[in-house]
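User: Sequence in, structure out. Go.
Assistant: Echoing your sequence, followed by the structure tokens.
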Amino acid sequence: MHASFQYSDTDKLSGLLPESRAAKQRDAAQRIAHVDDDPDIRDTVRRILSANGYEVDSFQTMNDFVVSLQGPVILPDLAILDVMVESMEAGLEAYVEIRKRFPELHMIFMTSLGEEIRPYFTNVSDEWILIVEKPVEPISFLSIVRSRLDKPEI
């Protein structure tokens, strides 16, 4: 299934919201890893985030993302994950592995299933899971991303 984002003019996406506190403190672009098997979603997310000063690393599979975290690595500031990128189990297993190895990594789940996926996290995580439902409006999406990046702890 291909979900599309609801926007009309990506040129207007730049500068809609003030930069995040962390980016100002570091005076550098924040890195966001995005995992989604839909090339249209990957492209749209990349364009929205890039237009707002973020560096974006896109991955087609959860395995590609997990492999990118092997060895010495510069951890992204945020990971946006599509839970059902390969299968529900693969997404949840990758989440558990990432959380164990990198508890400081901020993560957001972007899914067309919305809150329907929350029960799958029962007994997987005791923490609050942030879920963004596709399609998403760019300004709201950017607000969520900035809010998560500005959160001092997980």
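User: And one key feature?
Assistant: Residues 4 and 138 are 11 Å apart (CA to CA).
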